[in-house]
Each structure stands twice: as structure tokens, then as C-alpha cells.
Specification:
The chain is 63% helix and 0% strand. By secondary structure, it is an all-alpha fold. It has one domain (2-114). This is DUF983 domain-containing protein.
Length: 123
């Protein structure tokens, strides 16, 4: 049971874009670049893999949140296709770009809580 609470704690800290080790220092040095070391505790968070999971989770979440509204608006008002594209494509792009760092933080926090590192993932 202690392992699952550690994972939940890591995911919560990652969703706040904070270091999963201490929860204080910033996780990223840029938009998606993981900081070389935590400003508070000095932990190297680059050792936790977050390769393809963040974009997948972002598209999964954004798709499940926005697609129902997209289909509903199509049925309710039947706007022209160009209107649909003009509204939904930029909205999906902006929400995806805004959500991606939080998903990457959550994946890094999950890896920290589960004890998965790049070295252990290779074995």
C-alpha cells in the first residue's frame, strides 16, 4: 500500500510541475525540458523516462474532453465544415499544447513513485 501512495504523491507533484522527490523545486527548465537538477533538493529528474506516454495521454484526454462537444455542436447547429475547422482545430491545438507539460510531469512523477529509471527500463 505504501507503493501506491508514493505513486499518487509523485503524480500529484508532477501535475503541479514540481520535483517528485521534494515537491518544492520546479520540474522543468523550459516548456518540456526537465531541469538538470532540482533547485530545492538537487535530485536529477532526467533519469525518469517520459518518452511517448505524455503525448499519448494528452491526446487521449483532450480527445475525450473535446470530441463530444464537437459532435454535439455538429448535430445541434450543423455549421459549415470550414467553420468547424476554424473553431475546433485551433482549440484542440491550444488545449493540447497547454496540457502536455502537466501530462509529462505526471508521467515523471509516476516513474519516480514506481522506481522506474532509464537504466531499469533498459534491462
Amino acid at each position: 500500500m505504501a507503493g501506491s501512495s508514493r505513486i499518487a504523491e509523485g503524480v500529484r507533484r508532477g501535475l503541479r510541475l514540481r520535483c517528485p522527490q521534494c515537491g518544492e523545486g520546479p520540474l522543468f527548465a523550459g516548456y518540456l525540458k526537465v531541469a538538470p537538477c532540482c533547485a530545492s533538493c538537487g535530485a536529477d529528474n532526467r533519469i525518469y523516462p517520459a518518452d511517448d506516454a505524455p503525448p499519448y495521454l494528452t491526446l487521449f484526454l483532450v480527445g475525450h474532453l473535446l470530441l463530444p462537444f464537437m459532435f454535439w455542436s455538429d448535430r445541434a447547429w450543423a455549421p459549415a465544415l470550414w467553420v468547424q475547422f476554424a473553431i475546433w482545430l485551433p482549440l484542440i491545438a491550444v488545449v493540447s499544447i497547454a496540457t502536455l507539460p502537466f501530462m509529462k510531469g505526471a508521467v515523471i512523477g509516476f516513474a519516480w513513485g514506481a522506481g522506474v529509471t532509464r537504466e531499469s527500463a533498459r534491462q
